[in-house]
Amino acid sequence: MKRNIITIAALLCLLSPLSFAKPLKVFILTGQSNMEGPASISTFDYIGDDPATAPLLKRMRGADGNPTVAEGAWISYLTGAEGNNFELQGKLTAGYGSMWGQEPTKPGTNIGPEFTFGLTMDAALGEPVLIIKAAWGGLTLNTNFRPPSAGPYALPKQTLELWAQYPQGAHGVPPAADREKWHADRLAATGVYYRLMMEHVKKVLSNPGRVYPAYDPEQGFELAGFAWLQGWNDMCDTDTYPNRHQADGYDEYSRLMACFIRDVRKDLAAPKMPFVIGVIGVGGDQANTETINIRKAMAAPASMPEFKGNVAAVETAPFWSSELSAIADKHDQVQAMRSAIDHKHKDSANAGGRMTDEQKNEFMKKFESDLISPAEATMWKRGASNFGFHYLGCAKTFALMGKAFAEANLKMISKP
To answer: Minimal CA–CA distance to 255: which of 266, 245, 241, 268?
Structure first.
């Protein structure tokens, strides 16, 4: 009987929770300025104004009113500028967003999708997660993030024809004398940020315990997802996409995105790693033709047979704040009027410069107050902190994005 008791005790030791420890789930987030995260923490209150998102705000704030510090999520974040990058790391909380002009030794005052992405994963999985984030502003997929298998950058036929038509330069075309340097600069920039991203990911994975102190090497890790949020600079690149006003004008973006997914998986030896494409949503349902066209191109790889079930495209247009956008349009009108007044435009109240500085100030004060109501001014202050191409710096928008990216990733993880 005593021998049986000893045997059972030994089995219980072998079958302890530690023996069933799962690999640490690792998620990679990368892209340009909107993945950096330009939404100020000061706009959190706006999330609570909407009954539909008020519960999300409760998850983002602790009982003390400060941003939540995740119990089970850690982050390593590489950002900055080429040649001057820095890493922030620690338990996930608000502040791992855009760091421009902020102290590079601690989290700042902005968020991107990473905050609610991590909170959602932490709540859903009930086990530790590690987020590796690498993001920088003003980058393209066609050049800066260009994946190795995409081949060298080359101007499309239509752009070359346009350049030949304007040897002296015009309409955004560089003069012939500057073209050699233009090409050299492109060549030097090609793939730089793809390599920086990959180097950072591999550095963190070489020693996860540096970021997540409780990491057990015997437990190992699992690359459980990758989220991509980018697109603005490609959308505006008329050299690479000369036919962007046409439905197929961004087909090259789709090819590059597919190459990027394949290369990331190959370089990380994770052939089926779930991949989420955040589809640009600036402008919401009132977006211009170019935005609509690149949205289709961004989402297209998710429909490719080779990516069925392990690549998802998440539309971010539904998270665009139409009410803040309407106020932004009014701010643009105020700026246009101020410019007309300052430049003494013939159709303005200051035609010929007949107004004194005091009159100009009074005129603009009244113009703005007549156009933007006190309620709208309050709403703007609560909800917006940046420009339109940064989703107005609205924390509600970025919180919904991060949550949606995580949920799409979780669906792919749950599939057999």
So the answer is: 241
**Residue 348 clears pLDDT 70, i.e. is over it:** yes
Give Cα 278 distance to the centre of its chain: 8
Residue 31: beta bridge partners? 135, 229
**C-alpha span between 394 and 413 (Å, rounded):** 29
Identify the three-state secondary structure at position 80: strand
Q: Quick one: pLDDT at residue 262?
A: 98
In degrees, to the nearest 5, what angle opens at C-alpha 264 toward C-alphas 261 and 270?
100
Which H/E stretch holds residue 349? none
Integer Cα distance of 409 and 416 in angstroms = 14
Strand order in the sheet with 84-91: 84-91, 73-81, 129-135, 24-31, 221-229, 275-279, 311-315
Q: What is the CATH topology of the domain spanning 22-152+190-320+395-414?
A: Rossmann fold (3.40.50)
- pLDDT at position 18 is 42
Give the helix/strand (H/E) hosting 314.
strand 311-315
Residue 130 Cα to chain centre, angstroms = 18
User: Which of 317, 311, 30, 63 is CA-nearest to residue 195?
Assistant: 30
Each residue of 392-409: pLDDT tens digit?
A: 999 999 999 999 999 999
Q: How many CB atoms lie within 10 A of CB 18?
A: 11
How much is the average pLDDT of 141-153?
97
Tell me which residue has tokens 């855009």. Answer: 98
Interval 268-306: pLDDT, tens:
999 999 999 999 999 999 999 999 999 999 999 999 999
Which ranges in 241-373 belong to alpha helices (H)? 251-267, 289-299, 322-342, 357-371
Decide if 141 contacts 234 (C-beta within 8 A).
yes
What does the pLDDT look like over 82-99, one tens digit per residue?
679 999 999 999 999 999
Dihedral angle sign, alpha carbons of residues 269, 213, 60, 321: negative
Indicate the domain borders of the chain: 22-152+190-320+395-414, 154-183, 322-383
How far is residue 238's CA from residue 21's CA, in Å, rounded to a whole number?
Answer: 51
* Residue from 155, 298, 297 nearest 238 by CA: 155
pTM greater than the 0.85 cutoff: yes
DSSP-based three-state secondary structure for 49: coil
Q: Taking the CB of residue 295, how many other CB atoms lie within 10 A of it?
A: 23
Residue 67's DSSP bridge partners are 61
The Cα 226–Cα 172 span in angstroms is: 36
45: amino acid identity, one letter: D
| Structure-derived torsion over alpha carbons of residues 79, 133, 264, 228, reported in degrees to the nearest 10 | -100
